[in-house]
């Protein structure tokens, strides 16, 4: 009898411990991690990039995308022939975003102009073997190099002088003459259509007019017949516009007599952009102090990013799930140029998905340096260092105040120990 009582008490005690342990685990899961829910300005240091074999995370959950696809399919069955009413799906512009497109275009000009001046004062270091960038006179000693033969160097970087193209990157995409009538670029058309910065293509589709890159503007909405776009608008000048008009632009890149090195192309594009900025911006900005110029440059960065986010809410942008390719438009192109993981199963086609602002404008996160004249960052203290976009770090080193959005990411409230105190810190 006593044995039964003892066995029952032990059995109830085990169940009680399991229940308490389960409740403890569930309570820990419901707690906010790092204050993300309490502080909207909190942003942790970005994690290192995943393996190239892993796909990028979807900005919109897959269940939401499946539900939207089913709703669109049912709407096409219920009404096979219908006129699209909401812009820009119907081929018309969104009126309130036309001014935003012009602001983003001007902000990009101002950003390139400011960076071209700041780079001459604040040095920029780049690794010769990988995409790592550092802002400062001396490159850091953190072993994060993933370039060729990095194992023989113990993953240490080999630094050389960098430029504006290493601080911020603007991925290129194909320019679409008619984003609704012909949203896809075929593989055989890859040499006939120019490639321009994706953020510039986004501004053009949102209402920016550039003579060098013409685009079709409609005055009436299009129709959708069983999922296919049909345009009944009579355009007399449609036959006059020919895709061969791009040949003069494309020959600069495709011609065999001209060098096609990637770095030289980026430098030439950057020089043309800065020359254009020098002509358009007022001359009084050149004589301003370094701190004022850094503040103006950082404001241009935030204005460009915020404006691009507003436009991307209406105008879709696609990116490959495995590589850095970007295409502005309702659909991705069909050019077989993907060389990332599993491209053999896709026959070189890209795995298109919804893009984010980081895919449209490469922020290129760098380590934050508190004292630009101090010693190099130590590899053993890397967990105490913060990060920030290269543009923000460059402007802060030039005298601009630290923005509130990146205070937690730069870890300004963390006191890093000295090199001789590493063993004393837990």
From TrEMBL:
Region ranges (Disordered): 36-57
Give the highest taxon in the source lineage.
Eukaryota
Q: What is a single molecular function from GO for this protein?
A: RNA binding
Domain APO stretches: 126-212, 319-404
**Signal peptide span:** none
Please report the name of this protein according to its UniProt entry: APO protein 3
């Amino acid at each position: 009898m006593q044995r039964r009582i003892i066995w029952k008490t032990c059995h109830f005690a085990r169940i009680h411990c399991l229940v308490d342990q389960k409740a403890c685990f569930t309570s820990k899961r419901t707690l906010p991690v790092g204050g993300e829910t309490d502080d909207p300005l909190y942003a942790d240091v970005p994690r290192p990039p995943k393996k190239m074999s892993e796909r990028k995370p979807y900005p919109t959950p897959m269940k939401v995308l499946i539900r939207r696809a089913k709703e669109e399919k049912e709407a096409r069955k219920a009404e096979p022939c219908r006129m699209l009413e909401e812009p820009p799906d119907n081929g018309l512009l969104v009126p309130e975003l036309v001014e935003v497109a012009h602001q983003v275009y001007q902000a990009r000009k101002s950003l390139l102009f400011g960076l071209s001046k700041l780079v001459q004062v604040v040095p920029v270091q780049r690794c010769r073997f990988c995409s790592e960038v550092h802002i400062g006179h001396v490159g850091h000693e953190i072993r994060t190099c993933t370039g060729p033969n990095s194992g023989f160097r113990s993953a240490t970087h080999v630094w050389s002088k960098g430029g504006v193209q290493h601080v911020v990157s603007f991925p290129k995409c194909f320019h679409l003459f008619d984003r609704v009538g012909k949203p896809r670029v075929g593989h055989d058309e890859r040499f006939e259509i120019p490639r321009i910065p994706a953020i510039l293509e986004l501004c053009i589709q949102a209402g920016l007019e550039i003579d060098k890159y013409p685009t079709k503007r409609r005055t009436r909405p299009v129709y959708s017949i069983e999922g296919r776009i049909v345009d009944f608008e009579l355009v007399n000048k449609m036959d006059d516009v020919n895709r061969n008009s791009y040949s003069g632009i494309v020959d600069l890149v495709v011609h065999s007599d001209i060098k096609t090195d990637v770095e030289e192309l980026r430098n030439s594009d950057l020089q043309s952009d800065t020359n254009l900025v020098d002509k358009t911006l007022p001359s009084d900005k050149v004589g301003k102090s370094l701190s004022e110029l850094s503040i103006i440059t950082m404001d241009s960065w935030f204005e460009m990013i915020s404006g691009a986010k507003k436009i991307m809410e209406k105008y879709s942008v696609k990116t490959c799930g495995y590589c850095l390719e970007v295409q502005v438009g309702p659909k991705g192109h069909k050019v077989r140029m993907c060389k990332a993981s599993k491209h053999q199963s896709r026959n070189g086609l890209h795995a298109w998905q919804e893009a984010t602002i980081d895919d449209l404008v490469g922020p290129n996160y760098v380590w934050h340096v508190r004292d630009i004249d101090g010693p190099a960052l130590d590899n053993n203290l890397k967990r105490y260092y913060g990060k920030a976009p290269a543009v923000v770090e460059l402007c802060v080193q030039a005298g601009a105040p630290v923005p509130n959005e990146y205070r937690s990411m730069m870890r300004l409230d963390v006191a890093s120990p000295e090199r001789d105190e590493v063993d004393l810190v837990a």
